[in-house]
Design goal:
six-stranded antiparallel beta sheet, TIM Barrel, Jelly Rolls, 47 strands, 5 domains
Length: 808
């Protein structure tokens, strides 16, 4: 088989080494060894440097081999030629931490990334380059794209971070999901893709490059899949000498304000990973493994501040069970099959109408198999190699030796954990708060003028969310009221007439525009109208991104079109200009005591708090607020939008992550900019912890009946095969022990870990035995066995064990 090879010899630490990364049709080859690799996306700016070691360690413990990250151009070059690689932007430190923990890295340079990140990761100054067109065969864009890509590659090379230099980076990506937009670029699209591939390969990193969702990725670049079900949707590599690579397996999905979180089960993820592996997949990346937080103004249009909180590691870095544990077991089972998968011959054996086996057999006789039941409604009994197997509905059983099932994707035995927010401090008295009322400008106080409505993004340059648009309206009609009509393709507008609030309106992630329409009482003569146009992130995708417009585009008062008249503008709010969210800046204005229960629009609030004791993550509960932005000790923890409710009338996000590294022991400053009429006395500081763990197993979690094994034998287990007994494994987080057994039933408990009750069959000794075995320790294991409980409460009936425990 043809093989593409990158080999770079370097002098590393005084010793000549060759750490080449190559590939063939089966997999990536690292130092001459074929690899099946599990990867997880962790984005360095969506967490903090203090969190990185723990996140990477938990990913490694979960069975990952690779950490994958985008590179965020607009973070690193916010102004042309001015670079920032400090703090959360320190990508070199992040890659070195991956290396220190013995994992590989995948660097998705892009430099367009989308990623639900404002402007898709492109710096907004690109928009103002005369004659530029993004992501096409445009000389100016290609110049800047190559310049930044080259800078990142040279930085990596200077720190010897590519595998070709003995470093951890084994794979790089250029461009990102270009297939989604390429029809808009006609004959320019193949030229651009060929150029991007040649440019990247020409940088001589010594490792392969990939393009995701790019079926025609030019050689030697590998085309990769993104999506929920790449085992079903991916047509495969575009050349037989390229491996099957899945760069984004979505563990949940991004969430916009006004939308409920997308919940993807551990069983569904595991099924599609196993299917991709069975079809010769060799690299799978979970997007995201840890989503983290969109601090500041970095979230794209309408995106919530929390990112992929339903990932195996949640926003705060806590392990989310059972997703993390089930995938860990999957990884271990696949690794048991590695020899057969990587060097065996694949055959597909039909087992039924919707059932089949993918079998990998080596010349030595070593054999592994994946038994697939594609029926989503029925359990299937199949014969495979003269053995009878029972396959749960929509599941894959992995047999590392073609005999014994080591793992089934539908049988989730990992514990379920419950995350809780524990109250630490209240801000429930008005004397704790001070306020500053943001002034509403009028036309006469503005210095930026135009005879038309200006486009929002081009005016603010993505430096701030807010743009005041003011004009004077002469009301000569005898009518007491007139209709104000404001049309916007931005995100929010707040309207004021003669300094009085008139109304507000907003769009949504699924709308291209919206209208504010209000009946307004105007004074006879001249009236000052001030419209605050608000962006909640910039667009992050789509063809011709540089042409996209936002903000107000039509304003009418009754029958008069006011769009093309004299307008006065103010970029941003005065409080932002004076940086009153910082300890130094807050001295630039006069703060007042908060002494009113009537809330005013556009108000700044400030108070102080002490850091909660312990090491648990910290969150700010903003459930009593409406819309705005929050800062802690001068660092923005992101936008909030509590008033934008989901169809179920829930806020899309209520708690906001405050990293411990943002805090000091006492007198932490919190400042809020509230656009609407939120009430700050309902805010609390909470800590985040895993307070409950629950396990639930049944006889169905045993290996299925095979010929020569009786139901009685497989239910007993023995010293040689202890794993043949289904077992509840409970484990509290570090520094916490099992303090109380909340529920325990050996028999036929009804329900699951979300909701349960004692069934018709129940061992009365369940709680006593489990309390003796598990309380006051961090972890314990309880087999589902009548021998363990000293009785069989209902002979002849299939039994289960459900235990719910409290951690303190």
């Amino acid at each position: 088989m043809e093989m593409v090879v990158w080999v770079v010899w370097v002098l590393f630490l005084g010793v000549a080494q060759a750490s080449n990364v190559t590939y063939d049709g089966r997999s990536l080859i690292i130092n001459g060894e074929h690899k099946i690799l599990f990867s997880g996306s962790i984005h360095y700016p969506r967490s903090t440097p203090q969190m990185w070691p723990s996140l990477i360690a938990k990913a490694k413990e979960g069975g990952l081999d690779v950490i994958q990250t985008y590179v965020f151009w607009n973070l690193h070059e916010p102004q042309q030629g001015q670079f920032d690689f400090s703090g959360r932007n320190d990508i070199i430190r992040f890659i070195k931490e991956i290396q220190a923990q013995g994992l590989y890295a995948c660097l998705r340079i892009g430099p367009f990334i989308e990623a639900e990140w404002t402007y898709g990761g492109l710096p907004f100054w690109l928009h103002d380059v005369q004659g530029i067109a993004f992501r096409t065969d445009n000389k100016l864009f290609k110049y800047h794209m190559q310049r930044f890509t080259t800078k990142i590659v040279r930085m990596m090379q200077s720190e010897k971070l590519y595998a070709s230099q003995g470093g951890p980076v084994i794979l790089s990506q250029i461009e990102n999901e270009y297939k989604n937009i390429e029809p808009a670029y006609h004959e320019e699209r193949p030229r651009y893709i060929r150029w991007a591939a040649a440019m990247a390969v020409g940088l001589h990193t010594g490792v392969p490059w990939v393009m995701c969702k790019q079926d025609d990725a030019p050689d030697p670049v590998i085309n990769a899949c993104n999506g929920l079900r790449c085992g079903e949707t991916f047509a495969g590599p575009n050349k037989p000498n390229k491996p099957w690579i899945w760069t984004e397996n979505w563990t949940s999905f991004y969430q916009a304000y006004g939308e409920e979180p997308y919940m993807r089960s551990a069983a569904d993820i595991a099924f599609h990973v196993a299917l991709f592996i069975a079809k010769k997949g060799s690299y799978i990346n979970y997007y995201m493994y840890h989503g983290g937080t969109n601090f500041g103004r970095r979230a794209a249009a309408y995106m919530v501040t929390s990112y992929y909180d339903q990932a195996p590691l949640d926003e705060y870095g806590l392990i989310r069970q059972p997703k993390w544990g089930h995938l860990k077991e999957l990884h271990a089972a696949v690794k048991l099959c590695s020899n057969s998968l990587l060097s065996g011959v694949q055959s597909i054996v039909p087992l039924g109408q919707l059932q089949e086996a993918y079998v990998f057999k080596r010349n030595s006789g070593e054999c592994s198999a994946f038994l697939i039941n594609n029926d989503g409604t029925r359990v299937a009994k199949v014969m495979f190699q003269n053995h009878l197997y029972e396959l749960p509905q929509k599941s894959i059983s992995i047999l590392p030796d073609c005999k014994i099932i080591a793992f089934n994707t539908a049988k989730v035995t990992a514990q379920t954990s419950t995350r809780s927010m524990i109250l630490s401090e209240k801000f429930d008295t008005i004397i704790r708060w001070e306020v500053y009322k943001e002034p509403v400008p009028d036309f006469g106080r503005t210095s930026l003028r135009a005879n038309t409505l200006l486009e929002h993004m081009s005016t603010t340059k993505d430096t701030l969310d807010y743009l005041w648009c003011t004009f004077r309206y002469n009301h000569s009609s005898d009518a007491e009221t007139s209709l104000l009509n404001v049309q916007s393709n931005g995100h929010v507008v707040h309207a004021f007439v003669n300094n009085a609030f008139i109304g507000t309106a907003h769009g949504s992630h699924k709308e291209s525009g919206f209208t504010l329409e209000k009946t307004v009482h105007f004074n006879k003569g001249t009236n000052d109208v001030a419209l605050l146009s608000v962006m909640v992130g910039l667009p992050d995708s789509g063809a011709h991104l540089e042409r996209k417009a936002a903000g107000l585009h039509t304003v009418r008062v009754q029958d008069k079109d006011c769009t093309r008249q004299s307008w006065g503008y103010q970029v941003g709010l005065l409080g932002e200009k004076l940086q009153i969210y910082t300890e130094q800046g807050l001295k630039n204005v006069k703060w007042s005591r908060f002494g009113s229960s009537v809330q005013r629009r556009l108000t700044w609030y400030k108070t102080v708090f002490n850091a909660p004791a312990g090491n648990d993550p910290v969150a700010l509960n903003l459930g009593s607020m409406k819309k705005g932005e929050a800062w802690v000790n001068g660092q923005s923890i992101g936008r909030y939008w509590i008033s934008f409710r989901t169809p179920n009338m829930n806020p899309s996000q209520k708690w906001y992550n405050v990293p411990r590294s943002f805090l000091r022991p006492t007198n932490n400053l919190v400042v809020l900019l509230e656009e609407e009429d939120g009430y700050p006395t309902g805010i609390t500081i909470d800590t985040v912890s895993i307070t409950k763990v629950c396990g639930h197993v049944t006889d169905s979690h045993l290996p299925p009946v095979t010929s020569g094994v009786t139901q009685n034998q497989r239910g007993k287990g023995d010293k040689k095969n202890p794993g043949r007994l289904p077992t509840v494994h409970l484990q509290c987080p570090p520094e916490r022990n099992i303090s109380k057994i909340l529920f325990a039933s050996f028999g036929t408990p009804s329900g699951d870990c979300e909701s349960y009750s004692i069934g018709s069959c129940h061992s009365s000794r369940s709680r006593t035995i489990i309390e003796a075995a598990c309380t006051r320790i961090r972890r314990c294991s309880i087999p589902q066995s009548e021998e363990y409980f000293g009785e069989d409460p209902c002979p002849g009936i299939t039994k289960a064990l459900l235990v719910d425990a409290q951690c303190t």
